[in-house]
Specification:
The structure holds two protein chains of two kinds.
Chain A: H1 2-12, H2 22-35, E1 37-47, E2 52-62, E3 66-73, E4 81-85, E5 88-93, E6 98-101, H3 118-122, E7 131-141, E8 144-153, E9 163-169, E10 175-181, E11 187-199, E12 202-212, E13 219-228, H4 240-245
Antiparallel strand pairs in A: 1-2, 1-13, 2-3, 3-4, 4-5, 5-6, 7-8, 8-9, 9-10, 10-11, 11-12, 12-13
Chain B: H1 2-11, H2 15-55, E1 58-62, H3 82-87, E2 91-105, E3 110-118, H4 120-126, E4 133-136, E5 146-150, H5 151-157, E6 166-170, E7 176-180, E8 182-187, H6 192-197, E9 198-202, H7 203-210, E10 219-224, H8 230-240, E11 245-249, H9 250-253, H10 255-293, H11 295-303, H12 308-344, E12 346-347, H13 352-357, E13 363-364, H14 370-396, H15 400-405
Parallel strand pairs in B: 3-9, 5-8
Antiparallel strand pairs in B: 1-10, 1-11, 2-3, 2-6, 2-10, 4-8, 5-9, 6-7, 12-13
């Protein structure tokens, strides 16, 4: 989910890239993210070989550090709130009236049964600082001119991937396709962004698919329904008090 | 003495019948004795492995750490007491560890694990994990941020030598931290439960990431020279430890193992008792038959004035001979079997997975103690005496005059 937000926010920058240097491209995209505050309504579709499940949610995010997710549907999950502050994650379960700080042992568990783990949402290795970047080629993707950029993790970076290859449009707005490889260059998962639409005055991709390679028939789709990219948020918003009151 | 001789001759008057009972007792003994040997061997092996690889003889923690293994529950100045403990003649070596729950992530999977940050030089003197390494080595090659994990965890996370998992854990201030580590070794012990949970890193690497200093420790594991006098040695060490720090021997750390030890002994004793109980019926049957067959003879002996007590004694001696011959033969065969298999072990590798999920080795080395044999012999004699009761009553009811006059 957070990845989607990052990608989203990466995309929403309405700036033109001057720099041709790969790291600069990524850095500028990243810095735009860090300053943004947004409110987004989304639907998550968890696709499994035997079933499909839909979860609707509202999300508030302030830069990369803070985010809050309120589940609105299905009824069974409604009211659950997840909050991220720095690298802590909290979960409010109104049904049992419990506030849980997710312990390291729960970080591995899948988030709401999707292809994301809690760890994915928290341990956002910095795409600028933890990697070295290289432009591989230019490509035309869905009518957009794109850079194909390779991310190689720095030796000590806490990153599991061997490399990441990402297709970023030259205007810096869209990150269409990101492929994650292990150290033996096997593809582990792919994230695909499609459905470019205009939302709140911004031209963005509104559909994100995460496809793990080793699990046949598994994928998670995030669809943006509504967005406000100038939402007025401060750090105080991301509090336990707010988690219990938010609707 | 005469009676014993007569009894001995009597049982060989019908060798087939006697041999049937003797062989039955013999097989009963082999069955009971050998399964005892296998189980005792397995349990002893398990305990030995648990001491050598897992718990060591003695562990020292801050009070409350075992109930609540949190990062902040550490001992802050181990030098205040550790050198004194290591000076004890029965303490062979000690390893001071940092121990914390962590998560280990590969590109494919995440899982929880218990991270043990150790000094390799100390650790190899306390545990035998170095011998359990199947790939790579136990921190022999230099390198920063190395991790050693089990083959089952490596499979689960699709990691291999030189792979780079990311470990996430809490630091000394309970903030989330972590780093990328290289797989430097893969180990495999017989205990699946242990393998599934434990990963090892070097203290120096962990200290620099998590902000500990070398005199901090969550756990100190001690290896004793042998497994004797556990209680008194524990008290001796506890006397050195400060108030807030607690020491436990392996039986207290693994109450299940201590209990298993006692339980097998008792269980096996019951097993043999049940076998003997069943055999007693066979013995009673044989003795009754032989008495009915010798009706005339016994009647004659009584008629010529042989004392009832002597006849009773004769019957008792007959049963004792039957059971003793059978059990001695059985125990002899058992001893031969045990010494044959004890050398190379009984290889049940086909079921290795099942065994290791209980923490047992798939190669069993049976062993049996002299004490067990003595107990068995006592049990055999009791059985013989009990089995003799019925035939004696039967013989007592005989009326010599009637028996002799009847045809």
């Amino acid at each position: 989910m957070k990845k989607a937000i990052i990608m989203l926010t990466l995309c929403l920058a309405g700036f033109t890239l001057q720099a041709q240097d790969a790291t600069e491209i990524v850095r500028e995209a990243y810095e735009k993210v860090n300053g943004s505050s947004s409110y987004i309504e989304m639907r998550m579709e968890i696709v499994r070989p035997e079933w499909t499940r839909n979860i609707s949610m509202k999300t508030w995010a302030l830069g990369m550090k803070y985010s809050m997710v309120y589940i609105t549907a299905p009824a069974q999950e409604k009211g659950q709130v997840f909050m991220k502050r720095d690298n802590e994650m909290w979960n409010w379960q109104p049904k049992i009236n419990r506030m849980i700080k997710l312990p390291p042992s729960m970080m591995m568990q899948s988030w709401m049964g999707s292809d994301f783990t809690n760890d994915d949402l928290i341990n956002q290795a910095s795409i600028v600082h933890d990697y070295t970047h290289k432009i591989l080629s230019t490509e035309i993707h869905e009518g957009f001119e794109c850079w194909k950029i390779e991310f190689i993790p720095k030796p000590d970076a806490p990153v599991v991937w061997g490399k990441i290859v990402s297709l970023i449009s030259k205007d810096g707005k869209h990150m269409f396709k990101t492929e994650f490889f292990d150290e033996d260059d096997y593809l582990v998962k792919t994230e695909i962004a499609t459905d470019v639409k205009t939302m709140d005055g911004q031209e963005i991709t509104t559909r994100f698919e995460t496809i793990p390679e080793d699990k046949e028939g598994h994928k998670t789709i995030m669809i943006m329904l509504e967005a406000d990219f100038d939402y007025d948020l401060t750090e105080d918003f991301f509090s336990q008090m707010k988690m219990k009151r938010i609707r | 003495m005469e009676i014993i001789k007569i009894a001995w001759r009597n049982i060989w008057r019908n060798p087939t019948r006697s041999l049937v009972v003797i062989i039955a007792v013999c097989f009963g003994m082999v069955g009971g004795g050998f399964s005892t040997a296998v189980m005792v061997g397995a349990v002893n092996q398990r305990i030995e492995k648990a001491i050598n690889n897992e718990s060591s003889h003695f562990q020292i923690h801050k009070k409350g750490f075992l109930d609540n293994p949190e990062i902040g529950n550490y001992m802050s100045d181990v030098n205040a007491f550790l050198p004194e403990i290591l000076k004890k003649p029965f303490v062979e070596a000690g390893s001071s560890r940092l121990k914390i729950d962590c998560s280990i992530a590969s590109p494919y999977q995440n899982t929880g694990a218990i991270l043990l940050a150790i000094n390799p030089e100390d650790e190899i003197r306390v545990t035998e994990l170095e011998n359990a390494i199947v790939e790579g080595d136990f921190f022999k090659t230099d390198g920063k941020n190395q991790v050693i994990l089990s083959s089952s965890m490596a499979d689960k996370l699709k990691l291999k030598m030189r792979s780079k998992p990311v470990l996430t854990f809490l630091d000394v201030n309970a903030d989330l931290t972590g780093g990328a580590f290289r797989v430097a070794g893969i180990y495999h012990t017989d205990n699946q439960m242990f393998d599934d949970m434990h990963i090892f890193v070097k203290r120096a690497d962990f200290e620099s990431i998590a902000g500990f200093i070398p005199t901090d420790a969550h756990e100190i594991a001690l290896r004793f020279t042998d497994n004797e006098n556990l209680t008194s040695r524990s008290e001796e060490i506890q006397a050195i430890l400060p108030e807030s720090i607690d020491g436990k021997n392996w039986k207290a750390i693994n109450p299940d193992l201590g209990m298993m030890n006692m339980m097998t002994e008792q269980f096996l004793w019951y097993l043999v008792a049940i076998i003997m109980f069943a055999l007693a019926f066979g013995i009673i049957n044989t003795m009754l038959m032989s008495i009915l067959e010798r009706k005339k003879e016994l009647g004659m002996l009584m008629a010529v004035g042989m004392h009832q007590g002597k006849i009773r004694r004769m019957i008792i001696w007959e049963t004792i001979f039957l059971t003793l011959i059978g059990s001695f033969a059985g125990l002899l065969i058992n001893q031969i079997l045990v010494s044959l298999t004890a050398k190379n072990g009984i290889n049940l590798s086909a079921y290795a997975e099942g065994f290791s999920s209980f923490g047992f080795s798939a190669v069993l080395y049976p062993e049996i103690s002299l004490n067990f044999y003595l107990q068995i012999v006592a049990l055999v004699i009791v059985t013989a005496l009990v089995a003799a009761i019925f035939p004696i009553i039967r013989a007592g009811k005989m009326k010599p005059a009637e028996i002799i006059s009847s045809n």
